[in-house]
Specification:
The structure is a single chain. This protein is an alpha+beta fold. The chain is built from 24 helices and 34 strands. Strands 11-7-6-15-25-24 form a six-stranded mixed β-sheet. Strands 17, 18, 19, 20, 21 and 22 form a six-stranded antiparallel β-sheet that branches. The protein has a five-stranded mixed β-sheet with strand order 30-34-33-32-31. A hairpin with a 5-residue loop joins strand 24 and strand 25. Helix 5 crosses helix 10, helix 5 runs parallel beside helix 19 and helix 9 packs across helix 19. The longest helix has 26 residues. The chain is globular. The two termini are 47 Å apart. GO terms for molecular function: FMN binding; fumarate reductase (NADH) activity.
């Protein structure tokens, strides 16, 4: 780092320090101090220090220039006194070190500029890990009580072209094919520069997840709009979005606990504004625990989309009023916060009317009018699922683009041919066993015979069989599909089979529109030029998918552009540090404020302007948490503070026993018990904090949710995040929760 070290005033060079870069850090301090002493000794006889910083207890207020050297010679080379003298000299004489010296001081005295990441979903987590791996420090803010965002709900997988998995499986894909497929899907709103980044960096993104986070992504399938199988998921059957996002969450928790000086997590921190000075972004303001706090640094926004923005300032109502009354698959957090904040400071919203309506939202027969719907994975249609209208007929290419399929479904509704059902034969059901069990467990899918299916639809068995016969002939190549379908899986389909069946309706799912960025994830201002120190990734970033997003590209967009934003922000952070201008601080070391705690000998804390170091007793240190998961400590007043996540080794199940009959009595929203792997959990005071939404828990009020739990979670999440919610064990059952 120290290739050109010298001290200089704003107008001229004062002295040079040759060879500093070749020394160990302690020797660098010694050499630099020696040079400064020579400089001090050339000054008038009385030199005073310590006027604007808190000195060590024995630090003299003033000495003659000739007295400083012998006094310092009595101090250890690593002492805080030596560092204080070094910085005070620079401050007193307003000496400006070159970038290499600034960088050295930043790291040697624990002054830690950092990147602020807003949003703890997959894109924010990808950015945070990229910043950390590049050597930067990061603070992650999220308005929710848990990380994850909509990414945890992604059920199909993550796209990648020319990955190791594809090569080993002899899938004849190419990056160019993926680029062309995405360009075609984006239609007239295609941004070739952004699509190139998305597709050409796709294999690297998938393999980064595999190599850095040890994720299994060795199964591939073909989704609608793709010319090759390129959507990756694992063999463990868990939803890919949950598996991927949780792996990154866990790793960030470990970093926040083991390296708090480099990684901070603050949940329930609602960012309310972006701070700037001219075109330069200086940080953000956020609310935490009823107080407003500001933090300085470059900013990566990963706040998600606006497909659940039913607020008074709704972007949906403004740009797509025709969708405002639809149900949404998004969490309640997806209210366009980032879009609104960026546009408020002069950023550009682009393609804001491009809102993706997904064709297969699962209709809950117990609450068909609910504003919130669970998504049926694209993989269901990819593995051979058929869409049948209210007469028992096909009406579209099931593998067509999402907007096309949704449009065809609306036409069926206009004809009076609702509801639309998605059906899976036994072959497809076996391939998608995890999905069918999961949806069935939530009461959203039923298993039935072909005869029962015909009865439920309201058509004759012969009519239904004729629909299947025509489809089989198309799949065998004997006929051309009138709807243009080209790919067929898990055939034949026959009425003398068993089926998994669910009622579907189009739902709000994703927003392609968002904030205008360039291919470096920099947010552009009203003049089309990048803001300095402001980046966007994930669903917030507009233009990445054009007019329509391909299935499997939401997770990919999060990882690719999260990494791009993290890289670009890290480069900016380091360049700024090397210029000696961190955050909103000035370019002189004269603005260093140094603090030494007499009770902690040798510990030095430094602030550069308003840019505090992590670990100085700052607001961020007081608010920081080491858990990315929900707050489940039993306290309703806790604004999000978690000292440490629950340690599995210290967790034990209470001895109190309850019968299943007693558990069954606690079956309301205000009094809700659930059994998981032999333990009884009281969850009524935590419904709104559940990452999967309250309905996922309410489906099992007073019942055993073990099978559903095992599909989505590892055992450790209960002792780690929910030890206080465990109130006992089931009488007569063995506790199988691994603790």
């Amino acid at each position: 780092v120290f290739l050109h070290c010298r001290l200089r005033s704003p107008s001229k060079t004062v002295s040079t320090v040759p060879g500093l870069h070749s020394l160990e850090p302690a020797n660098q301090v010694t050499l630099l101090t020696t040079r400064l002493l020579t400089f001090v000794e050339s000054k008038p006889s009385l030199v005073a220090f310590g006027t604007s910083a808190f000195p060590p207890p024995d630090f003299p207020k003033s000495l003659t220039s000739s007295e400083w050297r012998p006094w310092l010679n009595t101090k250890p080379r690593h002492s805080s006194t030596l560092t204080y003298f070094l910085l005070s000299t620079l401050q007193n004489f307003k000496l400006l070190p070159l970038p290499s010296v600034c960088s050295y001081l930043i790291h040697s005295v624990n002054m830690t500029p950092r990147v602020i990441v807003v949003g703890g979903g997959l894109s924010g987590l990808s950015a945070a890990h990229t910043i950390y791996l590049a050597g930067g420090n990061v603070i992650v803010l999220d308005k929710q009580g848990f990380f994850g965002g909509n990414s945890t709900k992604a059920t199909s997988g993550i796209n990648g072209a020319l990955t190791r998995t594809q090569v080993e499986g002899e899938v004849r894909d190419s990056v160019k094919q993926f680029y062309d497929d995405t360009l075609k899907s984006a239609r007239d709103k295609a941004r070739p520069d952004l699509i190139k980044v998305l597709t050409y960096k796709s294999a690297a993104a998938v393999e980064w997840l595999q190599d850095v986070f040890n994720l299994d992504l060795t199964l591939v399938s073909r989704l609608g709009g793709h010319s090759q199988p390129r959507t990756h998921r694992g063999h463990d059957a868990k939803f890919p979005g949950m598996a991927i996002t949780y792996a990154l969450m866990q790793r960030l928790e470990e970093l926040a606990e083991n390296e708090p000086e480099r990684v901070q997590i603050i949940k329930k921190a609602r960012v309310t504004g972006i701070n700037k000075d001219g075109n330069k972004i200086t940080g953000v303001t956020y609310e935490f625990g009823g107080e407003s706090t500001s933090v300085d640094g470059p900013v990566v926004l990963a706040t998600g989309g606006y497909a659940a923005d039913f607020t008074e300032t709704s972007l949906l109502k403004k740009h797509r009023p025709d969708t405002f009354n639809l149900s949404s698959t998004n969490g309640t957090h997806a209210t366009g916060d980032g879009q609104k904040m960026v546009m408020a400071i002069g950023g550009n919203g682009i393609d804001m009317d491009k809102v993706q309506v997904h064709p297969t939202g699962l209709v809950d027969p117990k609450d068909p009018g609910s504003k919130w719907k669970f998504l049926a994975a694209e993989a269901l249609r990819g593995e051979g699922g058929l869409l049948l209208n209210g007469a028992g007929d096909r009406f579209c290419d099931e593998l067509g683009h999402r907007d096309y399929v949704s449009g065809e479904m609306w036409k069926e509704k206009d004809k009076g041919l609702f509801p639309v059902r998605l059906i899976l034969n036994s072959k497809a059901s076996n391939v998608l066993d995890f999905h069918t069990r999961h949806y069935s467990g939530r009461g959203l899918m039923k298993k039935m015979t072909g005869q029962q299916l015909a009865k439920e639809i309201g058509c004759t068995p012969d009519h239904l069989q004729s629909t299947f016969k025509a489809y089989n002939e198309i799949a065998d190549g004997k006929k051309k599909d009138p709807f243009g379908k080209k790919f067929f899986h898990n055939c034949p389909v026959d009425i003398n089979d068993d089926f998994h069946v669910a009622v579907m309706e189009p739902v709000l799912h994703f927003t392609m529109g968002g904030i205008e960025i360039n291919d470096q994830a920099q947010i552009l201002n009203s003049e089309g030029k990048p803001f300095e120190g402001l980046y966007a990734c994930g669903e917030l970033a507009g233009g990445v998918h054009g007019a329509n997003r391909l299935g499997g590209s939401s997770l990919l967009g999060c990882v690719v552009y999260g990494r791009v934003a993290g890289d670009t922000a890290s480069n900016y952070l380091f360049q700024t540090a090397l210029k000696g201008s961190v955050g909103a601080a000035a370019s002189r070391l004269g603005q260093i404020s140094l603090h030494i705690d007499p009770s902690q000998p040798g510990k030095v804390s430094v602030e550069w302007g308003s840019q505090g170091s992590i670990g100085t007793g700052s607001k961020q240190e007081q608010q920081s948490q080491t858990s990315a998961g929900p707050v489940m400590d039993g306290s309703n007043t806790d604004p999000g503070k978690v000292e440490k996540p629950g340690k599995p080794a210290k967790f034990s199940v209470p001895d109190k026993e309850y019968t299943m009959e007693e558990v069954a009595k606690h079956n309301t929203k205000d009094d809700l018990w659930v059994v998981v792997k032999g333990v009884v959990m009281k969850l009524d005071d935590w419904l709104e904090e559940h990452p999967g939404g309250p309905q996922a828990i309410m489906n099992f009020m007073g019942r055993d949710a073990t099978e559903e739990f095992e599909m989505l979670h590892d055992d450790e999440v209960i002792p780690k995040y929910a030890p206080a919610q465990v109130i006992g064990r089931v009488k007569g059952q063995k506790v199988t929760l691994e603790i």
